[in-house]
Design goal:
single chain, 253 residues, alpha/beta, 3-stranded mixed β-sheet, 35% helix
Length: 253
């Protein structure tokens, strides 16, 4: 059987579920992935159970697993909200609608078991994934919760609110970094970001204030460079004298 965890109706409460892993010391060091204990469904279960679990847990989606615990689908709040929508459509709306989409919508609105309502399985998050990988998957799939898998079995859930909580931890860095250290860190960051158009910008520092000068592609890059400088621990200010090429063209072309 799977090592994912299912809850009975009697054991589900409105309280947040137990956290298995979590916490971070800084946003700059590798943070452990905050994984919450999974609440799973099986395809033959009544849809009322899915509704009750979503209402009583902190999740916006629940993974559907087979008898071995492997992920086969997902039931989301949006799938179930279809049941409250009006089914009346104008003739012209049905004329151009996708028949397959209408059929799926009908199953979700009228289905009585989980298999009739669930959507396809999302790309899961590996149990050993980094916070960065998890954030990327959540963003690309437009989800708030995604299953975590190990050996193809669901072992937990990662949610966007848990990842956002990591951002509340203040960044720890050398507050007494020297001016030379600030310049070196700024140049290192300039060399590693793909959007930087001019890696030969003039960079100086005095009393913790970074001075930037040179041509950049546009105002968006100019603003991003200032953000880059301000985010360096030990930087107390930015004197940004970079000049966007777009302004140059507007002046002489």
């Amino acid at each position: 059987m799977a090592n994912s965890h299912t809850l009975s109706r009697d054991t589900v409460s409105a309280a947040p579920l137990r956290r298995l892993k979590g916490g971070a010391t800084t946003v700059r060091r590798p943070a452990p992935l905050p994984v919450t204990e999974a609440v799973t469904l099986h395809p033959e279960e009544p849809i009322l159970r899915a509704i009750r679990l979503l209402n009583r847990t902190c999740f916006s989606a629940l993974p559907v697993v087979d008898p071995e615990g492997k992920l086969i689908g997902l039931v989301t709040e949006n799938h179930l909200l279809t049941r409250l929508q009006s089914r009346k459509r104008s003739w012209w709306a049905t004329l151009f609608a996708d028949p397959q989409a209408l059929a799926r919508e009908y199953r979700r609105a009228m289905g009585r078991v989980v298999s009739e309502v669930m959507g396809p399985p999302p790309i899961p998050i590996p149990a050993d994934a980094s916070v960065q990988v998890a954030a990327d998957l959540l963003t690309r799939q437009g989800s708030r919760d995604l299953p975590v898998v190990a050996n193809e079995c669901v072992t937990g859930m990662v949610s966007a609110p848990d990842l956002l909580a990591l951002l509340e931890v203040p960044e720890v860095g050398p507050a007494d970094r020297t001016d030379a250290g600030l310049v070196a860190e700024m140049k290192n960051r300039l060399a590693t970001e793909a959007w930087v158009s001019n890696r030969g910008l003039w960079v100086e520092a005095a009393n913790g204030v970074l001075f930037l000068s040179g041509l950049v592609a546009d105002e968006e890059e100019q603003r991003a460079l200032e953000t880059m400088a301000r985010s360096i621990p030990g930087c107390v200010g930015v004197d940004n004298h970079t000049f966007p090429k777009t302004a140059l063209r507007g002046r002489w072309m």
